[in-house]
Amino acid sequence: MLNTTLLGKITSDKKILKRLQFTAISAAVAGLLALVQLAYAATQEAGIVLSAMGTANAQGADQQTRTLARRSGVFVGDRITTGNESQLQVRMKDGAVIALGPNAEFAVKAYSQKASGDKKDEAVLSLVQGGLRTISGHIDKSTYKLETPTATLGIRGTIFDVYVAKDGTTTVVLREGGVDVTGSNVKRKLDVAGLAVIVKRGGVPSEPSTPPQDVLDYLRGIVPDLPDNVTWHSDGNGGAVFDLGGDIINIINSPPPGIQGDGEVPSACAPNDYYCSCRMDPYGCYN
Questions:
Q1: How far apart are CA 101 and CA 223, in angstroms?
Q2: Of 129, 140, 179, 229, which has the highest C-beta tally within 10 A?
Q3: Which pairing describes strands 179-183 and 170-176: parallel, antiparallel, or unpaired?
């Protein structure tokens, strides 16, 4: 007669073996899915470099580092860094423009391939240190998020600047539109152009006030060849209108093309008609 104790032990061992096999298979599947996600991120283009000055590098989701230059692709999963006295300007897939200043660290966590202007859009960016100046594009504003070590930013159709100090203190300067700044679960609306909200580590967003001079000096250094009171906006016909009033600063050093989707798109352009070509293909007009 078979020993019941031995039979019970055999049955128990079989159950343990099955659990171990299931765990091993699950781990293998999870590892394979992670590799697939990394490979997809490494090929999911989020933008293109318009200009690069000095040193700018990107470490991709695959952990490979590459040097960024004009026309380089920027991909989901990239961690971008700039060196001393360096600048980088990127046009995103939806027509947004981001200009990074010196000693900046910036990451693209998510960015929709197609900016359809609905809840299916997604844009998650991160500024770890340094500064940026940006004009938002056609990503649905409710799905846009910019993270810093001390704050999270949401936008409402916007031109704004962000600076992150070495201690994580975040300064958000509004140029046009509106920004919602959240820190320590407290949200502050910034809707007066020229004012700033500051968030220190562990603190809540400050009341809007005049930006600190050292922050303005850093941001102005990104575009040193422009007067401080120059900005632009889309004229609704695919062109650009300059505004010389108020203390507003442009983020790029030449008149930008119309934002993708704005105004009437021409069917053909005359040779060397730069602005016409940009209206036809804003994403590729710097190629």
A1: 9
A2: 179
A3: unpaired
Instruction: Say what the pTM is.
Output: 0.69
β partners of residue 58: 66, 80
Distance, C-alpha 162 to centroid of its chain: 12
Instruction: Identify residue 122 by its one-letter amino acid code.
Output: E
In tens, the pLDDT along 216-247 reads: 999 988 855 444 444 445 444 444 444 433 32
- For 228, phi then psi, to 5°, come to -65, -20
Tell which residue, 160, 155, 156, 150, has the closest CA to residue 99. Answer: 160
CB 67 within 8 A of CB 83: no
Q: What is the pLDDT of residues 61-89, one digit of tens each?
A: 999 999 999 889 999 999 999 999 999 98
**Alpha carbon distance 203, 201 (integer Å):** 5
Cα 69 to the chain's mean position, in Å? 18
Contacting residues for 25 by C-beta, under 8 A, at least 6 apart: none
What does the buried/exposed string (b/e) look like for 193-206 if buried means 16 or more CB atoms within 10 Å of the residue's CB? Answer: bebbbbbbeeeebb
